[in-house]
Amino acid sequence: MNRKFWGKKRVTVTGGAGFLGSHLVARLKKGGVGDLLVPRAASSDLRLLENCMKVCKKKDVVIHLAGLVGGIGFNREHPGRMFYDNIIMGVYMLEAARRCGVKKFIGIGTICSYPKFTPVPFKENNLWSGYPEETNAPFGLAKKMLIVGSEAYRKEYGFNSINLLPVNMYGPGDKWDPRQSHVIPALIRKALMAKEKKRNELVVWGTGRATREFLYVEDAAEAIILAGEKYNKSGPCNLGSGKEISIKKLVELICEIVGYKGKIIFDKTKPDGQPRRCLDTKKAEREFGFKAKTDFHKGLKKTIEWYKFKVK
User: Fold this and answer.
1) When comparing pLDDT for 199 and 182, which is higher?
2) CA distance to 173, 250, 252, 304, per residue, from 258 (Å)
3) Please, are residues 100 and 57 in contact by the beta-carbon 8 Å criterion?
4) Which residues are bridge partners to 238 per DSSP?
């Protein structure tokens, strides 16, 4: 982290109390950022333009992490909220940052914006080659519009806005509420409960054939900091580990680590979501020197230990 760069910056991090945000804010504080604002949803509803203006006023860098997020089940139950909340926050934050003279806007998108059947590994230039997987589409398309806005604002106003697309993240501090959690915390919770209650079977949604890529949250925070220092283009940039694992192998690995020895059953009546997810991460390494460092098995063990001692 470049202390000379960040030490003189006035920074706002929306969503800074969330999963990724809390890790990012801790790093920024450690790196010497003195003027750091972390607006909270209770007092700063970012679906209102006037609140977005307040959090952008007299700031040099705005990092927009805030959003309504959840797993497949939450996405299916709340497609309207997923679309509206995310698109309105993104549009208002971008416009407010421009009006307030912010020097750099960092928008955090999602790989849910990619088409359902994207060639693997996902390359940034594949982003517009089809429609997203149906359960993720409202969320993915809402976030995707931030890329459109960013490119439009750079062209018309010369506004410095960048867009980062992190893959599925995991690590300490993730959401564990089963209604909103993503795949890793949901599976860890299930496996630990099955072991505790001595259940013979563990039921998992889908076929187990779908694949995912995961990025440790500390690595994601480091990537955002590096991009803030060095990346100044509106074109989207993937953030990932570049490694793919099937849901079946993921479940087996989690069960091995937690010590659950029961039978794993896949409920094929439930959706898999996008068939495959694995990113081409060359652009991030080329443009701002980011490469994921955390070994997946070690990161998973740290996540499970954190859950066992902090959540339960």
Assistant:
1) 199
2) 18, 12, 10, 8
3) yes
4) 165
Q: At what angle do helices 49-56 and 79-99 cross, to 10 degrees?
A: 50
Question: Which residue type is seen at 44?
Answer: S
Answer yes or no: are the C-beta atoms of 121 and 242 closer than 8 Å.
yes
HEC readout, the chain: CCHHHHCCCEEEEECCCCHHHHHHHHHHHHCCCCEEECCCCCCCCCCCHHHHHHHHCCCCEEEECCCCCCCHHHHHHCHHHHHHHHHHHHHHHHHHHHHCCCCEEEEECCHHHCECCCCCCECHHHCCCCCECCCCHHHHHHHHHHHHHHHHHHHHHCCCEEEEEECEEECCCCCCCCCCCCHHHHHHHHHHHHHHCCCCEEEEECCCCCEECEEEHHHHHHHHHHHHHHCCCCCCEEECCCCCEEHHHHHHHHHHHHCCCCEEEEECCCCCCCCCCCECCHHHHHHHCCCCCCCHHHHHHHHHHHHHHHHC
**Rounded to 5°, angle at Cα 127 from 125 and 131:** 145
What is the C-alpha to C-alpha distance for residues 284 and 237, in angstroms, rounded to an integer?
Answer: 6
CATH topology of domain 3-171+214-244+277-294: Rossmann fold (3.40.50)
**Residue 180 contacts residue 74 (beta carbons within 8 Å):** yes
Instruction: List pLDDT tens digits, range 1-10.
Output: 888 899 889 9
Distance (Å, whole) CA 242 – CA 173 = 23
Q: Is 221 exposed, middle or buried (0-12, 13-18, 19+ CB in 10 A)?
A: buried
Q: Per this entry, what is the length of the chain?
A: 312
pTM listed for this prediction: 0.92
Domain boundaries defined on the chain: 3-171+214-244+277-294
Q: How far apart are CA 152 and CA 270, in angstroms?
A: 39
Q: Report the alpha-carbon distance of residue 75 to residue 180 in Å, rounded.
A: 9
- What digits encode the pLDDT tens for the residues 188-227? 999 999 999 999 999 998 999 999 999 999 999 999 999 9
